[in-house]
């Protein structure tokens, strides 16, 4: 008689993957930033664009929250006067 691996049917101890948060694609062209965020989930995701400029005198920016409704794609844009150092998008329920 051969032994078989035990398979438990109860997955109660495994974390359930979170089904929230739009997927965002970022594009930087010189000093201009464009981000497209698509929300495939049934809950609205409020996305915000954050831009950090490279020059010390160039103002960083935090955009206003934009509601990405379920199955919706939103476009976020911003810019620096000169070079862009970093870009990120924050998500909130």
Order of SSEs: EEEEEEE
Main sheet: strands, sense, barrel: 4 strands, antiparallel
The Cα radius of gyration reads: 20 Å
Shape: elongated
Number of helices: 0
Mean pLDDT, to the nearest integer, reads: 89
Distance from N terminus to C terminus (CA atoms, Å) equals 54 Å
Instruction: List segments where confidence is low: pLDDT < 50 over at least 5 consecutive residues.
Output: none
Class per helix and strand makeup: mainly beta
In helices, the fraction of residues equals under 10%
Number of strands: 7
Q: How large is the share of residues in beta strands?
A: over 45%
Task: Kindly describe this structure.
The chain has 93 residues and is an all-beta fold. Helices cover 0% and strands 49% of the residues. A hairpin with a 7-residue loop joins strand 3 and strand 4. The relative contact order is 0.29.
